[in-house]
Amino acid sequence: MHRVIGETIAPFLEGRVLADPDALRVLFLQGPGADASLAKIYCAVEIALYDLAGKARGVPVSEMLGGRVRDSIRLYGSAGMYMSPEAYAAEASAIAELGFRAYKMRPAAGPEQDLETVRLMRQAVGPYFDLMVDAHTWWRMGDRSYSPATVEQLAQEMAAHHIAWLEEPLPPDDHGAYLALKEKDLVPLASGEHEPNEERYLDLILTRAVDYVQMDVCCQGGYSLGRRLFAEIARQGLRFAFHSWGTALEVAAAAQLGVCGHVSVPAGGGDPDRTAGDRARQPDCAAQAGARGDGGRTGDRAVPVDSGAVVAVPYRFAGGDARGDERSQRAVGCGCEVTGRVRPPGACGRQGDDITVIYDDAVRIR
């Protein structure tokens, strides 16, 4: 990717006037961007172009994307992977103590252990906290992969613990299998992070194969694809959740798009009086507060941040030990890129068009 940016995208952008990022993208697609793989990388770079254009005009990126329809989107803590049921429960509790109202984990210990994990997590956090199960390992374990019948049985049994969604329990390219499972109305299904292009996304959406469509704005097509998908998701009456493989910077970038979309997305904690099939919809977007690779996780305390400032976010360590540590990522918003300290919860940020990041509960754009 770095080579492509240096050898193809940078020479294309050099010397051009950044007045309209959309117009530059059209020009790129008419040239080197005719190659779909190059076009996808350009759309990731384009996020920075929107940021630069917004700073030059003194407006947040959300205004460059058409204007906000909401002031905040929710975040969830994305962490647990390959631990004991007790360790997952402890981490879920620690995430809740950070201020999050939702937690996503990744099971892979066998059907009985996976179900026990969900039971213990629900016991640890109580009924008014969302739990998401990212089950992508279930179809990636070779001869130990779960059969469709096992997946269906687990979905039914996990529904008794009121999970918010079951993510990628089946191979993600098999939209027909997702639709068949969804029609059984056992538990909300989520998928999308492995969709290779817009055509496959549209098939996922138009067949209504899942309840929650997921997208990683930085590696799956940028703001332009996100805006197009939002329209189709809204038309089909589905819900949307950002996926984030990266850092707090990516969460902030997603937030700028999230406040613009007319999509229905998840609400707060699990309500035992509601079934999976009729969970309330709220006009707000869910974004994953977490980073992959280095174990970093974004916390959920209210931390107003000046536009363009450096955001210090809680850092999550493996093994269920969640504790606060300061990591710096630049927020996306208007204004200069200045180094700043995060204000404590409850402190007031600078008024105007700056971005206020509230990790774990919401990202608010002011």
General shape? globular
- The CATH homologous superfamily name of the largest domain equals Enolase-like C-terminal domain
Helix percent band: 25-40%
- Report the major sheet: 11 strands, mixed
Which features characterize this protein?
366 residues, alpha/beta, TIM Barrel, 11-stranded mixed beta sheet, 11 helices, 13 strands, globular, disordered C terminus
Question: What does this entry look like structurally?
Answer:
By secondary structure, this protein is an alpha/beta fold. It has two domains: 2-59, no CATH class; 72-289, Enolase-like C-terminal domain (TIM Barrel, Alpha-Beta Barrel), CATH 3.20.20. Helix content is 36%, strand content 18%. It is built from eleven helices and 13 strands. It has helices at 2-13, 21-30, 36-57, 61-64, 85-98, 111-125, 148-159, 175-182, 198-206, 222-235, 248-258; strands at 72-81, 102-106, 130-134, 165-167, 189-191, 212-215, 239-242, 286-289, 302-303, 310-317, 321-330, 355-358, 362-365. The strands form two sheets. Strands 1, 2, 3, 4, 5, 6, 7, 8, 9, 12 and 13 form an eleven-stranded mixed sheet that branches. A two-stranded antiparallel ribbon has the order 10-11. A hairpin with a 3-residue loop joins strand 10 (310-317) and strand 11. The longest helix is centred in the N-terminal third of the chain and has 22 residues, at 36-57. It is globular. 49% of the residues are buried. Residues 265-284 and 290-366 have low confidence and may be disordered.
